[in-house]
Each structure stands twice: as structure tokens, then as C-alpha cells.
Amino acid sequence: MEQKKRVLSAIQPTGEMHFGNYFGAVKNWVDLQQDYECVYGVVDYHAMTMPYQSKKLRENVWELLFNLLATGVKVENLFIQSLVPEHTELCWIFNCFTSYGQLTRMTQFKDKSQDSREKTGDDFISAGLLDYPVLQAADILIYKADFVPVGKDQEQHLELSRNIAQRFNNQVGKEYFVLPKSLYTEVPKVQSTADPSRKMSKSAGEKHYINVFADENRIRKQVRSAVTDAGDTPEGSMSAGVANLFSLLKASGKQAAYDALMQDYEANALKYVDLKQGVADALVEISTTFRNRKAELQADKKTVKEQIKASSAEIRKIAQETVKEVKDLVGLMNVRF
Ligand code: AMP
Predict the structure, then answer these.
(1) Is the pLDDT of residue 241 over 60?
(2) Cys bridge to 70: 98, 128, 294, 330, which one at CB 3.0-4.6 A?
(3) What is the pTM of this model?
């Protein structure tokens, strides 16, 4: 049987999971498990690069893991980054093969520096934020991943990972690291239902995201109050709010309902209340399944946590092997030599 290609992806433990995260990233993780060997990290070292609360970090990590498991990510594919400290060791080694200038030019560094200033009101920007893409390169290369599912905003970081791998290979005179490729998948960009001109996100405030695990009433209320016509839509084109509701319906897999409502729209006979009803029903259906699964998992938290620790330990073996080989190649000491 042909060996499956390996996919690596990671997500930061930043609290609740909304439908933007689910349709834009997590659902893709679940689907990729069919055709690839998947390694998925909950990256808590990364979560320290922006202002954060130490007391909440561990809680957020477990919360995210339970959420991921409830949505269908397999336990054996998951690891917690800080249980694999080799990521930071490889990051240090990679720092020495990374151009400082290239890091300062990263779009996300500029954007996040700005966010951090706005959030805290001071000028403190951690060196960790600058170094973030180097740790990301270590996350990817430590597992010798063939593919990384990326959105457009991450392409620059993946390019940096390839540059680092190339510079490393040149240094050691060997094609040790295979250059990772991007894996493009069509994923919807979900907009805020309260303001369809901005993307669904937690940073914009509570009304701008719909929590995947929220109770039915809240989801229905948020969809019912979705903005449909903001008054700035050119004659004859679909407003951003209506387009977003259609997109949510499609992402939920309700193709037949989507087609029927789209036909109404094209015949100028669409009632927004019907569209909202369809979207609310679809989101509630997904949410109910996930909430039930999460409750089952939470009924025996201890076992689930043990499973995650075991899968992290198993995945760590790959990382340890890579770091050992890397240390040999760059001239560092290994205890076993
Ligand atoms: P974040 O917590 O914002 O870093 O997002 C985690 C993942 O969810 C990333 O892969 C994002 O691309 C994805 N994501 C976040 N918000 C949205 C959105 N509104 N629409 C689609 N994907 C999103």
C-alpha cells in the first residue's frame, strides 16, 4: 500500500471556536484525515507571542482539544506543542539560519504588532512575535511534512519555512529537509453576521461571532438578527449579508436548501426570513451534534486527557528523531553519540 503523505497544521488555543474557525479551518482538518497522515498541533508556545493570561492558557488548550475532538478530529492526530519541547530547540537552531530582515518584513508581524499596541495601549512587542514564523517553520519541518494547508495569509510564512529549509540544507551540504508544499483547499471566508463587511472573529466582540458550541437559542437569535441589507449594495447585486448567509448554508452541506433559496433569490421572491430559518436550522444541527459529542467526552475528562498526553508522546518520537539528526548535522552535541 502506498504510504500516505503527511499533512501538518496547527491552531492556537485562544478560547471559543466560532463558525469562521470551523468552516474555514477545522472542517478541513477533519476531511483531510481521510487521505493524509495528519499531525495537528495545539500550539501554546505560539499563544504566548501576543499579550495573554498565564492562568487561562492551560484551560484554553484543553477546551480547544475537547472542541476539536467533538468536531471529528481523531485523538491520535493531536498533540500539545509544549509537550513536544523539541519544537523550541529546533526553532533556536533555525533562528541561526533565518534572515532578521526577512522576519521584520512579514505582513503578519506588522499587523499583529499593530493589534498588540491597540490592545494593550503600550509599545511593547515581544521578540517572540517577530520569531513566530521561525517556530512555525520548526513545527512544520520537525515532522518532515509534505503538505501544509494554508490560506493566502499564511503563504508568506510557508515560503519562509522553505527558505529556512533550503539554507539549512546548504549549510549541511545535504538535501536533509524536503521543502514543504502548500495544500490549497477551497474554504469559505465567513463574515460577521452583525457586520458583514468584516470577517467573523472574536477580536471584534461578542456579536461578531457565533460560537459553534453555543446553545440553540443563542444561535437562532444571532442568525435572526443577521444584517441583510446595509443599504450600500449596488442595484442588481447581492448584499454582503445575504451572500454570507448563503455561504453559511452551503458550507453546512445544505445544498438542496441552498439551490431552492437561490432560485427564489433569482426570481426576486426570496424572503429573508426563510433564508435565516434555513441557516439557523443548519447551524443548530451541526452545533447539536458537536455539543452532544463534547458532553460525552467531558463525562470522562481524565481518560481523554490521558489519550492526548499519549498521542503527544507518540508524535514527539518523530520530533526527537529529527532534532537528534539535525544536531548531528549542524555540529551540536547529542547525549547519544
Ligand atoms: P484564528 O483563531 O483567527 O487564528 O483562526 C484560526 C483558524 O480559523 C485559521 O486557520 C483561520 O484562517 C480560520 N478562520 C478564522 N476566522 C475565519 C473566518 N471568519 N472565516 C474563515 N476562516 C476563518
Answers:
(1) yes
(2) 294
(3) 0.94
